[in-house]
Fold these 4 entries.
Entry 1:
Amino acid sequence: MTGITVIGNHDFVLGFQLAGIHNTFVEENIEPRITTILAEKETDILVLQDEDYKKLSPPLKKRANESVKPIVIAVGSLEEDDLRVRIKKVIGVDLYKK
């Protein structure tokens, strides 16, 4: 199990490396790496930039959205409700519930 994996351009990945995440990939074409990670299911959380996520092919984007392990998180301008739904799907609890 690798915990958190980050894929993206150098600047995006560097911030996560400085935060102590070592399983990172600097790549321009992220689709092959994402396909591999989704198939292996060894990663718990896959982090990518929202801009890269939007560029994924429709079938891969659908697969990423439906994935429970790894949970795919696009960092950037995702709506709070989308993140809320993903967290609830993974842990089974609505953390935002008051």
Entry 2:
Amino acid sequence: MVWKPHVTVAAIIEREQRFLLVEENTPYGLQFNQPAGHLEEHEDLITAVKREVLEETAWHFSPEYVSGVHLWRRNPNSPTFVRFCFVGSCFDFQPEQPLDNGIIATHWLTRDEIAKKTLRSPLVLTSVDDYLNGSRYPLSLLKSFLDYA
């Protein structure tokens, strides 16, 4: 079998010192996460994060920069993830749009409130702390050469 990590995207969205998180059903019970998900075939990273935020929160997302790229595995028998974390703002809320399967609710939480929640992974708080510590990389860092001959 060929080993390959899962590529995921996540969004840090902050308003008035509160961060948009989703509460979701997971194999480990109810947990909190940034709006996040897997990169799909034929999609670049920016398109993926915009899609995931809309599907999970009903907000449109405008990424402004990358705050981090993280390699994570829960334990030696778990899948490995490469997670690209974007920072940006949301606009044009679509309240009638159903949220992705498994998403229970969205919440605007402070950093301290997030730290007290059951998190999907340690990357949730790490990503918020990266943002708060000023970690910023331009979107131009990401180059896509899909279907490029």
Entry 3:
Amino acid sequence: MDFLHRLKPYHLDVLKEIGNIGAGNAATALSTLLNRTIDMSVPDVRLVSFQELPNQVGGADTEVAAIFLRIDGEAPGSMFYISSLHETEQLIRQLTHNESFQLDTPPFDELGMSALQEVGNILAGSYLSSFSDFTKLNLQPTVPGLSIDMAGAILSYGLLPLSQVGDYAIVIDTHINEIGDSATQTSGHFFLLPDPDSFDIIFSALGVEMDE
């Protein structure tokens, strides 16, 4: 991972721009699906060590909602969209207008969970598509899974079955807003965890020289 020492602020700016393009595409798709104006933005993008990932969402014991998928293609890896239960409940209530939707005690409302799954599909697909378009890499998502559990358990469950886990993740903060009289904002985090060999491929595609 020596190339990490060669990363410059503008490389992260490129990742942020990719995130904003993905957010724009996702906002358009959500607006069409819901027939309401949805706005999304990416306030920050950063590289975080794998050990620090749970701290990005409040700690390993924090209960969260997560969408998880594998990335196949030229730069394989894993992707998570993780949000706190409170933020997730707020988002689904906002999208479905079901103020009783909750994630504290099962069974969970099926319509709300379907909405969450669809939002996760749209978000993951939009981000991965923008990433693929920008880097010109062939990246294909697997069918996403949905889980409600502690952050540490979700990350471990998603990664332990893999034979290789990278040392770092690209964290893309995401804000989702519904535009209108009762506009509200919810937040979540995308974790993009390239497999070890994929980091070189991704950053080479972003213009980070590996041979210096």
Entry 4:
Amino acid sequence: MNMKRKYQISIEETLRKTIFVEAESEAEAYQMAEDLYNGEQVVLTPDDFVEYGIYVEKEVTENDKN
């Protein structure tokens, strides 16, 4: 008889959107982009999908809580 085992699997999606900002330095450009993102002026949507990955994290045993 084959005993089935339980596995913890992670599925990760990557979204990417390219924007343009005018700034006096790379650090300022980064901060501007971060502010736009945090202020929800730049919102990533399913149209910005780039790739996905599926990762087997570990086999789950009786000693694991979840």
